[in-house]
Specification:
- The structure holds two protein chains of two kinds.
- Chain A has 15 helices and seven strands.
- By secondary structure, chain A is an alpha+beta fold.
- Chain A has two domains: 110 residues, no CATH class; 182 residues.
- In chain A, β2, α5 and β3 form a beta-alpha-beta unit.
- Chain B is built from six helices and 22 strands.
- In chain B, α3 runs antiparallel to α4.
- Classes of the chains: A alpha+beta, B alpha+beta.
- At the A-B interface, α1, β1, α4, α6 and α10 of A face β10, β11, α5, β12 and β16 of B.
Chain lengths: 404, 505
């Protein structure tokens, strides 16, 4: 069962599993409906005979009274075992990433109805940043929209879509309704904009002159431009990220301690997972590799094709350059007072690439020697691409200071 | 054996025979064979009886037809007998020894039944023999060296197809290899392979090593569990009939494929974990028929220690389970059976951690279902988060049944009517301060208070009537049940419930 262990990619396996699970459990509910005392629409015998099939399913009168008489007594529910979600969520409250809370604020500040964001995060991280770009962008975006969330360290197996993050909208009600409020990442943006404390979410605040056709055209143009930037990030920068984290020494110094070590203490499992993870990343790189250039020195050949490191880095550099120019002298890509979705997406990578900021004390508590990994990442080719672009670097710092 | 009828055999052949006569002849010939056998048996007994103190020396033992069985393997069985009887012993002693060797050969399950045993005087012309020498011959035809089974099974909410391959007497020492593959609706796939060998040619002491990979849908807790791993164990059957198993197992468990409505408790435990544990099982089975007992008792305990010290792994606990069952025959073929089960999961501290680790969903007990507490759904008892049964750390369950023979079929048939009442509690370990992880002392206090909590109130229970059919392989039950007392959220089942299994409460 290959539920994606790759933190970057989501496969359809899990959703298929989930759907098949629910379909097998369906008969259970049907049978429960028939075997239990079913309130009958017509308690008195009908003069007109019903079709045989329905009368067959009717519960005879005496049986119905019997069914209604039991159980004789219902005691209060059994309390949950220790490790159950509620106590866990309470313990994780200290990780609450509401923009107002400072590290010194009381851990139990979040009210019980606070939604929980399940993501890749090291519980010991002092800066409370997820170490996964797809998670970090959501963490940032929710912070931009001032939606306080409880952060829950998790893994892809827990997610309804097979990839993190996902959100449980109301932790307390979910315990009675069976996790009904689960929002997978593909529906998270809509949920966030609906639940934002900030008026009208991201895109069209300060739209007083909405009627102005030129403004509307401008907005459409902005949207199209943002889409282009996002696809640049999703392809060029993502590929460089995948390459750097899985095909350079950073795999052992950063990816391994982040994704593999916490999964299990067992060498056996760690070895298997690290193979799976690397294979998934390689497959992902090959899938998106379109070039057929063969001449560069740092190509690594795999069975399915060629991963051209030089090409990957060149593309990423071009993408960062485009973003740097796109940002211009502005504070945010959104062009508004508050950062938007594109800012979150870009921060997903820049936030991590420059995480080993040599700030001394910040490395403490990250544990497992991954602090070294972050520094290596910053010094890597990918890191230097961001490092030397002042606009992107300052953009990152603004977000870290303002929202984390 | 000659008789007078042998003389005029040709005339008899010429004569036409009618059916009646044929039947009579057949009966006569059978009677004759029986009497011959009885007589020879009697004669043997008399012969042995009168010669029981006759000094004999077993000079040789030959096992014939066992082409694939190793000589060294058989020598381990027979050498002690040869040594013991070389200096001369009585005929009786020799026969007792040969009888036990015979049973040993049977137990390996590699020879066809019956194995024949003959005694003979060795050839007198052989100068190395003496007058007291006795040669023993076993005609032990080997069973087929492999068996392949395929089939389909249908059970409670489950259908599956399987392929089973058994290789017997693999290296000529009664080693066996068993490979099993099945795919199904609830156990989506399961592949296992086991190698088993007797130790020092002792059929009661065996060593087994095996591997398993499986994928099981656990709809009571909205997930699928993938297992990969292996185990090794020593199995010992004491002369008194007690079975002991002691082993080690290591499993990679992966909780994945969550259903859409999975609760946070299940989501939190999703992912990988490694269980490394040693375990011991003791079974003392004294029931006349485990699937439909009418008298006798059973005692079974299972102890498991995971993650302690050098065991490592991701989970640390001690699990103790005990089961006892008894059957009492009553007049008119009626029998009364009762059973009691209980278990405790005691959290331990993993190497390198400060506090005892809290139990995970896949380590906790589940209770309820047609084969334990009837009248409840599978995993229908105990704590739940939303609709998910997330299991408990302590449980106790008990049941009592009266089994009545069906009037026309009588007590010999494997079908009974049953009236039962059964119930149980399944509880999670509670910490007084829910926010803090427990230290070792608090855990011990907690376990005690949780066990005490088992007696709080009437246990969740159900009663009902049903039909029981004891097939040689498994027991089938169809019951009409009503839950009497339940806890909020527990899933009782009113109405019919079907159960298949080998172990019932």
């Amino acid at each position: 069962m290959a539920t994606s262990t790759d933190p970057e990619t989501s496969t359809d396996n899990t959703s298929r599993d989930a759907s098949s699970t629910s379909s097998t459990s369906l008969p259970k509910h049907q049978s429960s409906a028939t075997s239990r005392a079913k309130p009958q629409p017509h308690p008195h015998p009908q003069p007109q005979s019903q079709p045989r099939s329905t009368s067959f399913w009717r519960i005879p009168g005496p049986l119905k009274t019997l069914f209604e008489a039991v159980p004789l007594h219902t005691y209060p529910a059994n309390p949950l075992p220790q490790r159950a979600a509620q106590s866990l969520l309470r313990r994780r409250r200290r990780l609450s990433s509401s923009s107002s809370s400072s590290p010194s604020s009381t851990p139990d500040a979040a009210p019980p109805s606070t939604p929980s964001l399940w993501l890749w995060i090291n519980p010991a991280a002092t800066d409370r940043l997820s170490f996964n770009p797809s998670c970090l962008r959501w963490q940032a975006y929710l912070a931009f929209l001032q939606i306080p969330v409880v952060l829950v360290p998790s893994n892809n197996h827990a997610s309804p879509s097979g990839a993190l993050p996902f959100l449980i909208s109301n932790t307390d009600s979910s315990s009675s309704s069976g996790g009904g409020g689960v929002v997978p990442s593909n529906k998270l943006r809509r949920w966030a904009e609906e639940n934002s404390a900030v008026a009208d979410g991201n895109n069209n605040n300060e739209d007083e002159d909405n009627d102005d056709p030129t403004a509307a055209a401008q907005k459409r143009e902005d949207d199209a431009r943002h889409e282009a930037y996002i696809s640049l990030v999703e392809t060029s920068i993502r590929r460089a990220w995948l390459y750097t984290l899985h095909h350079t020494p950073l795999f052992t110094s950063l990816t391994h301690p982040l994704y593999i070590t916490p999964a299990s203490q067992s060498i056996f499992i760690r070895t298997a997972l690290s193979h799976q993870l690397r294979a998934a990343a390689t497959a992902e790189l090959l899938k998106s590799s379109t070039t057929t250039t063969t001449s560069t020195s740092s190509t690594s050949t795999t069975e399915g094709g060629i991963i051209d490191a030089e090409e990957i880095y060149t593309r990423a550099d071009e993408a960062f350059e485009a973003l740097e120019r796109g940002l211009g002298g502005e504070e945010w890509f959104s062009g508004k007072a508050r950062p938007g979705w594109l800012d979150a997406v870009v921060f997903g990578y820049t936030g991590l690439v420059l995480r080993g900021d040599g700030g001394g004390g910040d490395d403490e508590g990250r544990g497992d020697g991954e602090g070294d990994g972050w520094r290596m990442l910053r010094e890597s080719r990918l890191g230097q691409m961001v490092e030397r672009r002042d606009g992107l670097r300052r953009h990152r710092e603004r977000i870290v200071r303002g929202y984390f | 054996m000659a008789s007078q009828s042998d003389d005029d055999v040709f005339e008899k052949l010429k004569r036409k025979t009618d059916e009646k006569e044929l039947a009579q002849q057949r009966a006569e010939s059978e009677a004759r064979v029986r009497s011959v056998q009885a007589k020879s048996g009697q004669r043997n007994a008399e012969l042995i009886g009168s010669n029981s103190t006759l000094p004999v020396t077993i000079s040789s033992i030959e096992v014939l037809q066992a082409q694939h069985t190793r000589r060294g393997f058989l020598e381990r069985i027979f050498n002690p007998i040869l040594h013991k009887n070389r200096d001369g012993s009585t005929l009786n002693d020799a026969l007792v020894d040969m009888g036990s060797a015979y049973r040993t050969l049977q137990k390996f399950d590699i020879f066809q039944e019956p194995i024949a045993m003959y005694y003979d005087k060795p050839d007198k012309t052989d100068p190395s023999t003496s007058a007291t020498d006795l040669a023993v011959y076993f005609y032990a035809k080997e069973k087929s060296r492999y068996t392949i089974n395929t089939g389909t099974e249908a059970g409670h909410d489950e259908g599956s197809a399987f392929l089973n391959v058994i290789l017997r007497n693999l290296f000529g020492g009664a080693e066996s290899f068993n490979a099993h593959a099945s795919i199904g609706t609830r156990t989506r796939s399961s592949y296992s392979a086991n190698f088993e060998t007797p130790i020092l040619s002792n059929p009661d002491l065996k060593w087994e090593v095996g591997g398993l990979a499986s994928s099981t849908i656990k709809s009571f807790a909205s997930h699928e569990e993938l297992l990969k791993g292996g185990s090794t164990k020593l199995k010992y059957l004491t002369p008194g009939g007690h079975r002991h198993e002691f082993g080690y197992s290591g499993y990679w468990r992966q909780l994945t494929g969550l259903a859409e409505g999975a609760s946070p408790s299940v989501r939190q435990d999703a992912g990988d974990s490694f269980k490394s544990s040693i375990h011991h099982t003791w079974i003392n089975e004294r029931r006349d028929n485990p699937l439909m007992p009418s008298k006798g008792y059973l005692i079974k305990t299972v102890a498991e220690i995971a993650g302690l010290g050098a065991l490592k792994g991701d989970v640390a606990f001690t699990k103790l389970e005990a089961e006892t069952a008894a059957a009492i025959p009553l007049p008119a073929g009626i029998s009364f059976t009762a059973g009691l089960r209980g278990g405790v999961l005691y959290p331990l501290t993993l190497a390198g951690q400060q506090s005892p680790s809290q139990s995970r969903l896949n380590d906790r007990f589940q209770l309820g279902g047609p084969t334990d507490v009837r009248g409840f759904r599978l995993g229908g008892l105990g704590p739940r988060d939303g609709t998910d049964s997330i299991g408990g750390d302590v449980y106790a369950a008990g049941g009592a049944s009266l089994l009545f023979p069906i009037p026309k079929l009588g007590p010999e048939s494997p079908i009974r009517l049953q009236a039962f009442i059964n119930g149980g509690r399944l509880l999670g370990l509670q910490s007084p301060k829910s926010d803090e992880p427990l230290d070792s002392q608090a855990v011990s206090k907690c376990v005690k208070s949780t066990i005490a909590e088992l007696q709080n109130g009437i246990p969740s229970c159900a009663a009902g009537l049903g039909l029981v059919y004891a097939h040689p392989v498994a027991r089938f039950e169809l019951n009409f049940s009503l839950p009497l007392y339940i806890r909020k959220g527990e899933e009782g089942r009113k109405g019919l419930q079907f159960g298949v299994g080998v172990s019932f409460l």
